[in-house]
Amino acid sequence: MTIEVIPAIDLIGGRCVRLSQGKYDSRKVYSEQPLEVAKAFEAHGVRRLHVVDLDGAASHHIVNHRTLEQLATQTSLAIDFGGGIKTDDDLRIAFECGAQMVTGGSIAVKDPDTFCRWIQTYGPGRIILGADVKDGRIAVNGWQEESACELFSFLGYYQDKGITQAICTDIGRDGMLQGPALELYRDILQHHPTLRLVASGGVGSMDDVRALQEAHVPAVIIGKAFYEGRITWHDLEQLACASQV
Description:
Blueprint: E1 4-12, E2 15-20, E3 23-31, H1 34-43, E4 48-53, H2 54-59, H3 65-74, E5 78-82, H4 88-96, E6 101-104, H5 106-110, H6 112-122, E7 127-134, E8 137-140, E9 145-150, H7 151-160, E10 165-170, H8 182-191, E11 196-200, H9 206-214, E12 219-222, H10 224-227, H11 233-243
Parallel strand pairs: 1-4, 1-12, 4-5, 5-6, 6-7, 7-10, 10-11, 11-12
Antiparallel strand pairs: 1-2, 2-3, 7-8, 8-9
Helix pairs in contact: 1-3
């Protein structure tokens, strides 16, 4: 099985940015036009896009929904969207603006009843669990706050509730380009072998992508490695072709 590579667009003020370790003061703007970035991904064979509303994550409600709507209506990309999805209204807005899937992290920690209701209402094909981890525990609210939830019990609880897909970000590695948390992902797959795990954080090269594939990780999100030119358009095309065979 070829690993699925999912490019990320992180949004602040409607612009395409990247952070390091989730720190907002580390932001670097890569494009003023996220739609043009998304169209370029589509033109190079990408089918799925990971979009994060960083303003929403910090504000505790959806903010960049108009940009989401642009991306969804002017490309054919399947968009999974997260950041600031805390209420039924936030979820409704995200779906109405064209998200095919929504990722919930903080809501899954702080309001599990609501999150479980979303899983039951929309199905596990549309609701993704966000498991952003720091020192083995789940972090919330744009990674600014560490919860008491332990990673493996958190994943197990929501698998029992029907979740089939989780995006797991190792916060300490995110944006650092120093390699993904391979041991962490191996442990997750050992404990939760039926989970469709999407790795996130630390990828700095194609060698890192290949290492994740060898570890049988089903999918990986790439961000800074692409924007900094360490993973090229040609690499994306090759990966997109391989994953669609």
